[in-house]
UniProtKB/TrEMBL annotation:
Residues 175-202 form a coiled coil. GO terms for cellular component: plasma membrane. Residues 85-186 form the MotA/TolQ/ExbB proton channel domain. The keyword Cell membrane applies. Pfam families: MotA_ExbB. InterPro entries: ExbB/TolQ_transport (IPR050790), MotA_ExbB_proton_chnl (IPR002898). Its main location: membrane. Keywords: Cell membrane, Coiled coil, Membrane, Protein transport, Transmembrane, Transmembrane helix, Transport. It is found in: Cell membrane; Membrane. This is MotA/TolQ/ExbB proton channel. It is a multi-pass membrane protein. One of its GO terms (biological process) is protein import.
Length: 207
């Protein structure tokens, strides 16, 4: 384990950064884990309601389903009376909102993965400066005199990498999960718009 006393103040910052990044990761992990994929049943329900011209039951089905997909589809349904273009515009706006909500906190992990090695490098530089200052003052080289500065350099370098590697892995894992959710929303948008076009064509054929 890294010893804080040997890493100096930079290692303290790295430890605090580790705690914060870990909190963000697990909060986002649990939040994204609760998001429901696989909305085939919901889409069948919504499409069936739209073909019967029953908008309110379709909206209620979205509310019951909940989650990202429920909110997303629900955002477009009130615009159905105004045409497919209006629904598409509402869904695109909702997609941007969901992307921002799902991606919340990911920037923290990304920045941590980039900043931690730089802090480690800074600790390496300050540690070596400290070691050379000791040499300049004492005018002699002994392991005891150099140990403090070199120890700080090595411990902060290791600390930076220990923080950065898990942060980078966590970021890519969560970013992949967000991408999966957004891909499904895009797919469901196409399904809903396709169903609305079919309903519109059927109504024109009957007219």
């Amino acid at each position: 384990m890294l010893q804080v006393s040997q890493g100096g103040w930079i290692l303290v910052i790295l430890l605090l950064l580790t705690v914060y990044a870990a909190y963000v990761f697990f909060e986002r992990f649990l939040s994204l884990r609760r998001e429901r994929l696989g909305g085939d049943k919901l889409m069948r329900e919504v499409e069936a309601c739209l073909r019967r011209g029953r908008l309110e039951p379709a909206m209620e089905a979205c509310r019951i389903h909940g989650g990202t997909l429920g909110r997303f589809v629900l955002a477009g349904l009130p615009r159905v009376p105004y045409g497919v273009a209006a629904v598409d515009a509402a869904l695109k706006a909702a997609l941007l909102e969901e992307e921002a909500r799902l991606s919340r906190g990911l920037a923290v992990l990304s920045v941590t993965a980039q900043v931690a090695p730089l802090l480690g490098l800074l600790g390496t530089v300050t540690g070596m400066i400290r070691a050379f200052n000791v040499l300049a003052v004492e005018g002699q080289t002994t392991a005891q005199l150099l140990a403090g500065g070199i120890g700080e350099a090595l411990f902060t370098t290791a600390g930076g990498l220990i923080v950065a590697i898990p942060a980078l892995m966590g970021y890519h894992y969560l970013a992949g999960r967000v991408e999966d959710l957004l891909t499904e929303l895009e797919q469901r948008r196409e399904e809903l718009l396709g169903a609305l076009v079919e309903v519109d064509n059927a109504q024109k054929a009957e007219a």
